[in-house]
Automatic annotation (TrEMBL):
Pfam families: HTH_21 (PF13276), HTH_28 (PF13518), rve (PF00665), rve_2 (PF13333). GO terms for biological process: DNA integration. It comes from Buttiauxella warmboldiae. This is IS3 family transposase. One of its GO terms (molecular function) is sequence-specific DNA binding. PANTHER family: TRANSPOSASE INSF FOR INSERTION SEQUENCE IS3B-RELATED, TRANSPOSASE INSO FOR INSERTION SEQUENCE ELEMENT IS911B-RELATED.
Length: 452
């Protein structure tokens, strides 16, 4: 398939910035490893120009021979030669090399394949001008005018640089019909008459049918800063009145280069120390019947140059809402205690609340446990070195870093702090969740409170 230039450029820049291997980059952007390798080589040789779509072309014998001689002189592979000469298909060069070894330079002469396009009885250049009649000269002049007009229309800015199929050629011919005869336009476009009439009578293209939906997808993508994949995009479209299959949404997003950022893998390790650990009362049962029955908490770290910023949050397992948070430049006891103090002030906390955490040293101190006991909150801890016991909290942090932190290079602690707070507010009030039926956490909690 033909990938948009924006997708090609994004994939190449992602790989060259060493954010992932070739396999990881190909999976992330939904492209094959072979075309990705060709794009990388073309980008290194020619920059962004090497990633642009090129019209199909016929290579002359001299050009093919020059490519072969370049390979022999520089001892390079067909892949390197394709990047140097901007030939999109390196297999073509391998065929030229094979033919050259078998038959020499004469074997490189272009051979026409397939059904030839019908030509007029008197093709241009078949007679010298001095031997043409007045009618033939008039016909030749009309053809040359049509031939001159066709490439100008085909290369207009609104059409962009993209491969021309029969449908695209038909549109160009139709736009030039008022000024030129059909027979000359078909000859200039190298388009068979049967192909022209087939596409001219064909129903509206699928892209026209989805034009309104594509505009809605782009608007949602801009509003959410490219954070929605095709599943969330499908739910968002349904809320705006568009009902269509998620596979169609995925196809449209891929055609227009609208890809979301996939969360990067995080290295997890266990740090021992502190007092005794509490029992794992949660036992990976992350479902709750009401808000304020089960909470989870953890601390994550952000880097800004040589400095670090720490975020402590509490999340409700029923609505997935971030109940409270606190940000500090030091992972001190004050960080988690201030966060807990804010969390205990919410009015929907229920009796018998369980607060689950990992075995971090903060959660084993006497101060932390005293605050929980005074509030009537039961403490639960993950097993030693088992981060999946606190998977809900790890999931939120991965969303936060993939959708906000890793998308921007931060040089200021204050800017990072502001963006973290903005994202938490966005996560609570705007970001829809598949687990809550396509509504935000706050909206889901409000709906459930009204029903109960």
């Amino acid at each position: 398939m033909k990938y948009p230039v924006s997708v090609r450029l994004s994939a190449v820049q992602y790989y060259l910035s060493r954010k992932g291997t070739l396999n990881e980059t190909a999976l992330l952007f939904g492209v094959g490893k072979s075309p990705l390798g060709r794009w990388i080589r073309a980008f290194r040789q020619q920059g962004e120009a090497g990633l642009e779509h090129r019209l199909s072309r016929t290579y002359t014998q001299d050009f093919r021979l020059g490519v072969i001689r370049y390979m022999m002189k520089h001892k390079c592979s067909s892949a390197e030669a394709s990047a140097h000469f901007a030939i999109p298909n390196e297999t073509l060069i391998q065929q030229w090399l094979k033919r050259y070894r078998e038959g020499g330079a004469e074997a490189l002469h272009p051979v026409k394949k397939g059904v030839s396009v019908p030509k007029a009885k008197s093709p241009p250049g078949s007679k010298p001008f001095c031997e043409m009649t007045y009618a033939e000269l008039q016909e030749e002049l009309e053809y040359l005018r049509a031939e001159n007009a066709y490439p100008k229309k085909a290369e207009s800015p609104e059409r962009g640089k993209c491969p021309q199929g029969a449908a695209e050629k038909t549109k160009i011919v139709q736009s030039l019909l008022p000024a030129h005869r059909l027979v000359f336009l078909l000859r200039a476009a190298r388009l068979a008459r049967s192909s022209y009439y087939y596409n001219a009578t064909k129903p509206a293209a699928e892209t026209d049918r989805y034009a309104g939906i594509v505009r809605a997808i782009m608007a949602i993508n801009v509003r959410h800063m490219g954070r929605y994949g095709y599943r969330r995009m499908t739910l968002a479209l349904r809320k705006e009145g568009f009902t269509l299959n998620h596979k169609t949404v995925r196809k449209l997003m891929k055609q227009h280069g609208l890809t979301c950022h996939i969360r990067r893998k995080k290295y997890r390790s266990y740090m021992p120390g502190g007092g005794p650990a509490s029992d794992n009362l949660l036992a990976r049962n992350f479902r709750a019947e009401h808000s304020g029955m089960k909470w989870c908490t953890d601390v994550t770290e952000f880097r800004v140059g040589e400095h670090k910023l720490y975020l402590s949050v509490v999340q409700d397992m029923y609505s997935h809402e971030i109940v409270a948070w606190h940000i500090s430049r030091s992972p001190s006891q004050r960080l988690v205690c201030k966060m807990l103090d804010e969390a205990l002030k919410v009015n929907y906390r229920k009796k018998g609340l369980i607060l689950h955490s990992d075995q971090g040293w903060h959660y084993k101190t006497l101060m932390w446990r005293a605050m929980l006991a005074d509030a009537g909150v039961t403490q639960s801890m993950s097993r030693k070195g088992n981060c999946l016991d606190n998977a809900v909290m790890e999931n939120f942090f991965s969303h936060l870093k993939a959708e906000m932190y890793h998308r921007k290079r931060y040089d200021s602690m204050e800017v990072l702090k502001r963006d973290v707070i903005d994202y938490i507010n966005y996560y609570n009030n705007e970001r829809i969740s598949l687990k809550t039926g396509g509504v935000s956490p706050v909206e889901y909690r409000t709906q459930m409170e009204i029903q109960q």
